[in-house]
Write a structure and sequence with these properties.
- By secondary structure, this protein is α+β, with helices and mostly antiparallel strands.
- It has one domain.
- Helix content is 24%, strand content 24%.
- It has two helices and three strands.
- The protein has helices at residues 44-49, 55-64; strands at residues 11-14, 18-24, 30-34.
- The chain has a three-stranded antiparallel β-sheet with strand order 1-2-3, with no helix packed on it.
- Strand 2 and strand 3 (30-34) form a beta hairpin.
- The chain is globular, with a radius of gyration of 14 Å.
- It starts with 10 loop residues before the first strand and ends with a helix.
Length: 66
């Protein structure tokens, strides 16, 4: 995993067709994601409401909640 420090207005690219723009940084972070329509982009909260947390999210939380 790559962890970055960013400022509002910064862009992050993933491959050739995904761009993430940091809109606001503060108590809450606001991001805009431009990606192909066929790419699934979901918040972990959606999975958790269904009673499931993907294993990769669990690993990340364990790693970074120290």
């Amino acid at each position: 995993m790559l962890a970055l420090t960013v400022r509002a207005g910064d862009y992050i690219t993933i491959g050739d067709n995904v761009v993430i723009q940091i809109l606001k940084v503060g108590d809450l972070c606001r991001v805009a994601i431009d990606a192909p329509r066929e790419m699934a982009i979901e918040r972990a909260k959606v999975h958790e409401q269904n009673g499931e947390t993907p294993e990769y999210i669990q690993r990340l939380r364990e790693k970074y909640q120290k």
